[in-house]
Amino acid sequence: MMWSVVILLAAAFSVESYTVHDHERLAHGRQLKIFLSKNAEKLEFTPADDPSKTFLYWEKGRLRMSKGRVSGTGSDRRWYIDKVTYEDQGTYIQRDFWNKEISTFKVAVTPRHNYVKCVAGESLYISLEGIDLADASLSFSGEAANVTLVRDGARMSQDLVDYWDRVQTHSMNIEIRNVNFSDQGHYILRNRRDRVVSVTRMDLTDHHEYTGGNPLMALLLLLGIPAGICCCCRKKIFKKKANTAATLQTLPSTGPVGPSPPYSGPGQPGAVRLHLSFLSVCLHISDSTS
Ligand SMILES: *[C@@H]1O[C@H](CO)[C@@H](O)[C@H](O)[C@H]1NC(C)=O
Ligand SMILES: *[C@@H]1O[C@H](CO)[C@@H](O)[C@H](O)[C@H]1NC(C)=O
Prior knowledge:
Elements: H1 2-18, E1 21-27, E2 32-35, E3 42-47, E4 55-59, E5 69-71, E6 78-81, E7 90-95, E8 101-110, E9 112-118, E10 124-127, E11 137-141, E12 146-151, E13 154-155, E14 167-169, E15 173-176, E16 185-190, E17 196-204, H2 215-223, H3 227-248, H4 269-289
Parallel strand pairs: 1-8, 9-17
Antiparallel strand pairs: 2-6, 3-4, 3-7, 5-6, 7-8, 10-15, 11-12, 11-16, 12-13, 14-15, 16-17
């Protein structure tokens, strides 16, 4: 009995240590980055929507990539996509010279949640998060109205009195000009398959809190985190940011909402997570308004 337990444990341990399985949940529009192993010869992708297909995304020595880009050399080589979409959900497999699988990386994409504050009279920009304008639909839900502003890239807003000529479409974003109280609420961006790409909550404010400088640095000083730690953790912060953003920037009253983050006392990992999430929210606000 005892021996069988030991053997089982040993078996479990060896499985654990020999297969390199990894996964990541990314908010729509974030960068997907995969470190290429030193002896990787190719990177294959199997989409989650169609597991019977396999695409060759990168091959050693070939300059033209069928998808994504490669930067760095040697052991610091990485393949990346600037803005991840639902089509990039699936399994990324690296193979060596003998076509043997050396790593498997699963990617899941979640809707992005933004919280933006605008001053009356400003423009609100809703990023397309990597989808084409022709595939984008934007609806607004608030106390003043529940309307579709853009459908498949075309402005429905031109038929609405309150929105006439206030909605402008661009290649990277949709702009709502001259915002005011009636524009407060949730903006839901969907792709052609009607999947939610992002939910942006907009509230009016009488002024923007930060003025110039680096908002990340100012925030770190405010939180009393020494700059040294910041440099050490920079990689981690940005990795974490992707994960925490999805849970932290959730909104209380819309459809696809995740659980609120767990609270833990200071000194516990949860406290660190809380700070990191705070960073991502603020960074995001600055991203959206700059
Ligand atoms: C916003 O709305 C308020 C009240 O409706 C109005 O007084 C104000 O002038 C508006 N601001 C802008 C910038 O249009
Ligand atoms: C829009 O929908 C929301 C929630 O479904 C509701 O609370 C709000 O009153 C609606 N607004 C209008 C103008 O009907």
